[in-house]
Amino acid sequence: MNRTSYSKGWARFCGWLLRRMGWTAVGGPIPENKAVILGVPHTSFWDFVVAYLFYTSFGDVAHVMIKKELFFWPLGGILRSCGCIPVDRSNASELVRSLIEQMEQDDVFKLAIAPEGTRKPVKRWKAGAIKIALAAGVPIYAGYFDWRTKRISCGEKLTLSGDIGADLAMVQNYYEGLHLTGKHKEKYITG
């Protein structure tokens, strides 16, 4: 899928719905055509809904990975129209390679990833987002959705060193300093 934007009417509706749900957008979409956007904390399916409404309100598309098992009719078509990409999670290295290839082929490709890798509580996040950003030579942004304040943002551009372990620790430390609250508080662990 090489979808790069939504209609102005749909974008306005998504922005209106996001505000009706009580959310405040902090900043706008990222300026680059290609990037990785982290989405933290990821504790609920509703994180996707809020993030979709936020990014779509700018008329922009942020692709997300969804397990391939959910791409059955009619849900598969709906997911694809929302920028979702079906993935086989059984082979992590092949998954990363295919995402890098897709990012290189498309003129515009913004990939949103939850570094926790799951909605369950985890202490060690996955490094796939960092690997993709480094290999594709694209920036990475520290996006967030805070359920306590109902603020959502693409966040700041982070500077990666190229040392994946150190970069992953830096990202986790950065988010720890934000003091975010997930929809399900008990599922978000920092530090």
The count of strands amounts to 8
Q: What fraction of the residues are assigned to beta strands by DSSP?
A: 15-25%
Give average pLDDT, whole number: 91
Helix percentage range: 25-40%
Oligomeric status: single chain
Q: Sum up the overall morphology in one term.
A: globular
- Helix count, DSSP H or I runs of 4 or more residues: 6
Give the count of structural domains: 1
Main sheet record = 8 strands, mixed
Class from secondary-structure proportions: alpha/beta
What's the helix and strand layout?
Blueprint: H1 8-20, E1 24-26, E2 34-40, H2 46-56, E3 63-67, H3 75-81, E4 84-87, H4 92-105, E5 109-113, H5 128-136, E6 140-146, E7 151-153, E8 157-158, H6 164-178
Parallel strand pairs: 1-7, 2-5, 2-6, 3-4, 3-5
Antiparallel strand pairs: 6-7, 6-8
Helix pairs in contact: 1-2, 4-5
Tag the structure with descriptive keywords:
191 residues, alpha/beta, 6 helices, 8 strands, 36% helix, globular
Structure characterization notes:
- Helices cover 36% and strands 19% of the residues.
- The protein is of the alpha/beta class.
- The protein has one domain (8-187).
- Strands 1, 2, 3, 4, 5, 6, 7 and 8 form an 8-stranded mixed beta sheet that branches.
- Helix 1 crosses helix 2.
- It is globular, with a radius of gyration of 16 Å.
- The relative contact order is 0.21.
- The mean pLDDT is 91.
